[in-house]
Amino acid sequence: MTIAVITGASSGLGKEYVRQVTEQLPTVDEIWLIARRLERLEMIAADFPSKTFRLLSLDLCRDEDLEAYRRALSESGATVSLLINNAGFGKLGDFAEMPTADQVGMVDLNCRALTAVTSLTLPHMAQGGGILNVSSIASYVPTPRMAVYCSTKAYVTSFSQALRAELRPCGIHVLAVCPGPMATEFLDVAAITGNSKTFQTLPYCRPETVARVSLNRLLCGNSWYTNRLFYKFYRVLAKLVPNRLLMKFTAV
Predict the structure, then answer these.
(1) Is 149 part of the annotated catalytic residue set?
(2) Share of residues in the chain with pLDDT > 70 (%)
(3) What is the DSSP letter of 60?
(4) In the chain, which end has fewer C-beta atoms inside a 10 angstrom radius, N or C?
(5) 124 with 73: CB under 8 angstroms?
(6) pTM of the model as a whole
(7) Active-site choice (149, 225, 231, 234)
(8) pLDDT for 89-111, tens place per residue?
């Protein structure tokens, strides 16, 4: 049995990845959806009655839930053809004024959980498999007022590139997708809506486009995906201009 695993699958970009997996990977026998909100997962699965899903209500910041995922993989005997690490969140605000729980929570979910899920999944992957890690344009340059979030995404991008090099001999592809802002729940959770003039002026990305094109790029063996010309230029600029100069314009 071959499966695809999607974390953070209950809404936004994760929901769009579910749709794209059903369309672009018709040979997958079962799709595993992971999120805390089981009722949301049930609603998404109901949209695709012809597909077989396994719904896992897990908090990936909890060791016992990571262990439950490990057991589920082991007991299933399945081969994972695709892992999409989409679970993550951000918070807007000055570091000194933000609750410690929020700061640590971003590190736990965006970095620790992503690393753990990848480590637990890899033994069940074979040649031709793929790992898609959702990062952000925030990984390119440090972002004042989102200091921890941008740092966690820099980790995701760096981790993805190094892991790709390690797994290339095994025939397993790894891609980092670095989208710009999207009109999803992320903005409300991050307290960005109505609190950032910068976000109001930036061009927004369509979640369905990000999911469709990034999954296609992974299947083609690419290592990186950033959509919209504006953000592609930003990526190039980040390589050429010192961070200390760009940071004057990245504050949100």
Answers:
(1) yes
(2) 95
(3) T
(4) N
(5) yes
(6) 0.94
(7) 149
(8) 999 999 999 999 999 999 999 99
